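Hi R.,

As promised, here are both runs. First protein below:
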Amino acid sequence: LSICSRTVEPLEYYRRFLKENCRPDGRELGEFRTTTVNIGKCSITTADGSALVKLGNTTVICGVKAELAAPAVDSANKGYIVPNVELPSLCAERFRSGPPGEEAQAASQFIADVIENSQMIVKEDLCIASGKLAWVLYCDIICLDYDGNLLDASVFALLAALKNVQLPLVTINEETGLSEVNLKQKNPLIIRKHPVATSFAIFDDTLLIVDPTAEEEDLATGTVTIVTDEEGRLCSVHKPGGSPLTGAKLQDCITRAITRHKEVKKLIDKVIKSITPK
């Protein structure tokens, strides 16, 4: 398989591999790229929690900043979670500097939906004093190197960064009505669910490959992302157009996503255990 055919006829080049149940990078169709996570060592000194995730060459960093604010009038007992995905021009040639493009906006919306649907953080848990004070969590997810499967890496980085957040104890002084922050007493954020995303590319309307690279995404006839939690519950199915999936194929994806969840959760737990002071 010459390099020439990869540049001239990339789809044909891929098909020759897929027929043999493998991919040009040597992976099997259902095999993920090497996945690593660093938690809290990302040198974002201003963040209250941070994580760096690598999925093959795709590299995503997430920093969480916690600030105090008054709750909204119609949800007096709830805090806020504000996710934002950035795809700067440095991460791939396809992205331009300037305001967020379509892909970044869609990814931010996807992350917001995952937070909401999975109930990973319950907004009531972020309330300090009903109608008076609540936490706002700004979750900035920045792609440093883009090689496909942004959503899996982003959900993973978000979860790992949130697990790293320690919030100081905040009380409201009865006499003055002012908030008092005790930085000596910090508590971890309450994470109620651990959502994990698993993405697939669909080739020629029928063939599913897991964890697609940027090149595979470009050649695919569709993509689908399945988000599950630790109980195997389906939190989200994200399918932006493209080839339709049969019920059986979708069930295959869900089964694979549940297995992937166990792998990712194990990895996070292992890293957190290694950084927890003995």
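And here is the second one, sequence first, then its structure tokens:
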Amino acid sequence: PEEFVYGEEDFVLQAAGWGDTDSAPSRFDRVLLAGWSDRMERGLFRYRLGPLPTRVLPGPVRLVAQLNEQRSAERRPPQPVRSLRDPFDPGAFNFTRLRPAELLFRLRRTGGPGPPPDPLLVAINASPLERGHVLLLPEPARRLPQVLTAPALRGALEAALLSAHPGFRVGFNGLGGGASVNHLHLHGLYLGHPLPLEEAPAEPLGPRLGLLRAGPAPAFLFFAPGPAALEPVSRAVCRAAEHL
């Protein structure tokens, strides 16, 4: 795939607000969405994603509910999980088997702050939840199982900083948490609604750590004052996940 080379000057440290409908997309947004739409037109997804019935549920948490019948019926069934430490299985489906056309580009940073993260492949999620739903893949040939690592997380967080859209999010779901493939990957997608946690107050637990109680479950908030702090924050997140 082509390389998407970026530097610190490409980071969008203050994304557009939800009320700023005229904000310009970033270079990252334009390239990602153009490639994603092209693959949709070429029929590379398991289904054609149209408008999804969506509403915000009543209550203090304001959960966003979407009906996506095609994903529940046509997505790849999750691989059986015996342990959160299941080793990579070369005989099962994995991302070394993606068709070349499913790859959009390779993310690679040049310059500071600090040493650049390992490159990430950006590929379509063939069973998308939303427009622009992609997979963020550390080098698939390394055949790493679906266990979060600090280098992969740091690369995904830098990808989030490349978007000017207020709803672009990255996420990780592990074995037993809905992951369908035991091969290291994160998700990126564009959400069309603000999340209450974006404005929820946090109880301080340390210099860069807080506790959020406003969501459906208590959550930790790891705070990075700038791009240079993403490396230690990524390591702290993975230590917490390992402990849990």
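A quick note on the second one: The chain is about 20% helix and 20% strand. Let me know what you think.

Best,
J.
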